[in-house]
Amino acid sequence: MTTKADQKAQVAAEYNAFLALCPSRRLLDRISNKWVVLILCALGGDTSAPPGTTPAPKAMRYSELARLLTGVSQKMLTQTLRALERDGLLTRTVTPTVPVTVTYELTDLGLSLHHLTRGLRQWAQTHMDQVLTNREKHDAQAPRP
Amino acid sequence: MTTKADQKAQVAAEYNAFLALCPSRRLLDRISNKWVVLILCALGGDTSAPPGTTPAPKAMRYSELARLLTGVSQKMLTQTLRALERDGLLTRTVTPTVPVTVTYELTDLGLSLHHLTRGLRQWAQTHMDQVLTNREKHDAQAPRP
Lengths: 145, 145
Hints:
homodimer, mainly alpha, Arc Repressor Mutant, subunit A, three-stranded antiparallel sheet, 57% helix
């Protein structure tokens, strides 16, 4: 008899992102992207949750996402949202108002990835000072022979 | 009196990766990269740890990394390792053998990020089948009006 944990381990063993031709390498490439990380953080509700509290996922309109993710181009945001919808990480709902309202919401699969992307954003923000100090130290050293 | 948790929350509040000009946006961009994820997974010891066990970090030679990360170009691997060294995520040690031996090892800061990159790789491998099913379903639907 195989347990659920065994099955999970087995599935994980079938794919190996270290291999260039494994489909999971492309999936890792897709999710290792700052716009994916920030979109998941936004829909996961990170912006409205103070540090230390659990964020509540929320549906957001295209225009809200575009405003929150400063610097993202319309083309990049549209492409990234389409890819995430195709992968089943979020749903896109069109409400026939005038003009139409388009909202995006995380699926359960998207929520499972959100826990990690939230961690990545928090890591970058929490360790920024340490990284800046490391860079200064590194640049002050004599160049490598 | 401020506790350590308060201080951490305060530091995290100073930086905001949603903002295009915040240094943490660039750091998030740097770490949201498949080669960074795979290098940290390799040096974190993920390849030698069976699923469910805790991996033991290990020092690796340049050539070992190049072999493990199939498809990575020499230029990309060198650039990524240098950036990670500058940020203080790994150390580079040169042993004066003939030819010289160059090894890379995670620092404590690198190890703190490894927990997240390990999760990302595992997520991609574990949810690959589900994502493939979602894509098939999505592509079978009529094209959007």
